């Protein structure tokens, strides 16, 4: 069994080598994304595994993979919008993802950033960087006094609910599916009610046509002026210019942004000596009440291990049986 993994980072290598040894398989790695320029790398392999931000929108990629005898594309990520599912299906390529690599990783990020926001730590950082050590105007809130609003109470959102409930916060959520296992922790409401009642709104929904720009100007106007937004889901879930406007106009108090539209331009890249031109990134970075991170909410030891293992397990299963545990089509 020969498998090629695209866009492999150094921190993934130990898990990849351990899996290959356990399964007596050859797993080679390639640093670049899968696209029309790199698809020839897959020739001679039985299966491929990818993770990337750029969409594979050239149909020739899928037809070439089919011509190489490849029967699948396994993503080591939850999101699969980078794949043209229709083109994949037309070329008999089974697509899999890792729907729950580590709900705790993203949930703990949401908790961490909530703590920073309600303690005004990002504002104190800005003050003290100017040698202004006054307290004035930055009194904190205790988490047990807050109402936490969750948009998308699936695996990750449900974990967020449990964490905040354990700390004494009131938890409300909007989700088309009401999970009875969360009944002890969550009060379900419609989205508008969650936005209007929550002190912190944290987003944990998939990226779908129905969730693109789920948070826009209308939704920000429904939030409290003292409320915070956390987005650790997918960038296009939030209308970024609308978020920038809401922050500038003080419709909301602040935000922690881990994902953003067009993030493939800069995420996990060293642009120290490069001029950033994305106006939304520049605007958010200039605001002292915004915490901006480069899509690292998932990035923990357990998450990386699970993303490698589950994606390779699905690849192996497809090659041996034609089926996988986590198909997306």
Automatic annotation (TrEMBL):
Give the keywords, sorted. NAD, Oxidoreductase
Would you say which domain of life the source belongs to? Answer: Bacteria
Q: Which Pfam families does the record associate with it?
A: 2-Hacid_dh, 2-Hacid_dh_C
> Where would I find the D-isomer specific 2-hydroxyacid dehydrogenase catalytic domain in this sequence?
4-328
Question: So which residues are the signal peptide here?
Answer: none
Tell me which residues make up the D-isomer specific 2-hydroxyacid dehydrogenase NAD-binding domain.
Answer: 113-297
Q: Which family does it belong to?
A: Belongs to the D-isomer specific 2-hydroxyacid dehydrogenase family.
Q: PANTHER family this protein is in?
A: 2-HYDROXYACID DEHYDROGENASE HOMOLOG 1-RELATED (PTHR43026:SF1)
Q: What is this protein called?
A: D-2-hydroxyacid dehydrogenase
Q: What is the native source organism of this protein?
A: Loigolactobacillus jiayinensis
Please spell out the taxonomic lineage of the organism that makes this protein: Bacteria, Bacillati, Bacillota, Bacilli, Lactobacillales
């Amino acid at each position: 069994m020969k498998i090629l993994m695209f866009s492999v980072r150094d921190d993934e290598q130990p898990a990849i080598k351990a899996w290959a040894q356990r399964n007596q398989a050859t797993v080679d790695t390639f640093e670049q994304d899968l696209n029309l320029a790199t698809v020839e790398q897959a020739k001679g392999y039985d299966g491929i595994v990818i993770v990337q931000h750029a969409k594979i929108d050239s149909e020739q990629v899928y037809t070439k993979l089919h011509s190489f005898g490849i029967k699948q594309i396994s993503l080591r990520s939850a999101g699969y919008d980078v794949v043209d599912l229709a083109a994949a299906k037309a070329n008999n390529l089974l697509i899999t993802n890792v729907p729950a690599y580590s709900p705790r990783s993203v949930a703990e990020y949401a908790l961490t950033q909530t703590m920073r926001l309600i303690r005004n730590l990002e504002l104190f950082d800005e003050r003290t960087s100017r040698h202004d050590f006054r307290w004035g105007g930055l009194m904190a809130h205790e988490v047990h006094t807050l109402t936490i609003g969750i948009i998308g109470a699936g695996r990750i959102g449900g974990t967020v609910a449990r964490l905040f409930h354990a700390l004494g916060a009131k938890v409300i959520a909007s989700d088309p599916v009401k999970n009875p296992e969360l009944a002890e922790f969550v009060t379900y409401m419609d989205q508008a009610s969650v936005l209007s009642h929550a002190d912190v709104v944290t987003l944990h929904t998939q990226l779908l046509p129905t969730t693109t720009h789920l948070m826009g100007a209308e939704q920000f106007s429904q939030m409290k002026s003292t409320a915070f937004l956390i987005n650790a889901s997918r960038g296009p879930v939030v209308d970024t210019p609308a978020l920038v406007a809401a922050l500038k106009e003080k419709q909301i108090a602040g935000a922690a942004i881990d994902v953003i539209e067009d993030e493939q331009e800069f995420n996990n890249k060293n642009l120290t000596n490069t001029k950033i031109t994305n106006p939304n990134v520049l605007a958010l970075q200039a605001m002292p009440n915004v915490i901006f991170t480069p899509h690292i909410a998932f990035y923990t030891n357990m998450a990386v291990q699970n993303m490698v293992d589950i994606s390779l397990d699905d690849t192996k299963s497809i090659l041996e049986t034609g089926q996988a545990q986590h198909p997306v089509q």
